């Protein structure tokens, strides 16, 4: 199911924001190239807020313990840490749309 979570102008390039989408907490990021990415908002290691993490072109780093999660797959780059779910995200008519389910 698709959800319009907010205006693209709500996000600053290089930063994330958490939205409640379909009963889930999802972190949405606006990358420097204008692309949007979405994944679970909570780090599986110790519950860190991924929307507050530093981002690179293809991953976000949890601000608590520096575990990095790849946007496309949700895989953690460190061994032994569970992945997070990723969600398709796009911009339509200036709104961020996230697909859940």
From TrEMBL:
Keyword Iron in record: yes
EC number(s) from the headed UniProt entry: 1.7.1.4
A GO molecular-function annotation: nitrite reductase [NAD(P)H] activity
Naturally occurring in which organism (per UniProt): Rhodococcus aetherivorans
Keywords, alphabetical: 2Fe-2S, Iron, Iron-sulfur, Metal-binding, Oxidoreductase
Descriptive protein name: Nitrite reductase [NAD(P)H] small subunit
InterPro entries in alphabetical order: Rieske_2Fe-2S (IPR017941), Rieske_2Fe-2S_sf (IPR036922)
The UniProt record lists the keyword rRNA-binding: no
Sequence ranges assigned to domain Rieske in this UniProt record: 3-98
SUPFAM superfamilies for this protein: ISP domain
Cited PANTHER family: 3-PHENYLPROPIONATE_CINNAMIC ACID DIOXYGENASE FERREDOXIN SUBUNIT, FERREDOXIN-RELATED
Pfam family, one: Rieske
Superkingdom, natural source: Bacteria
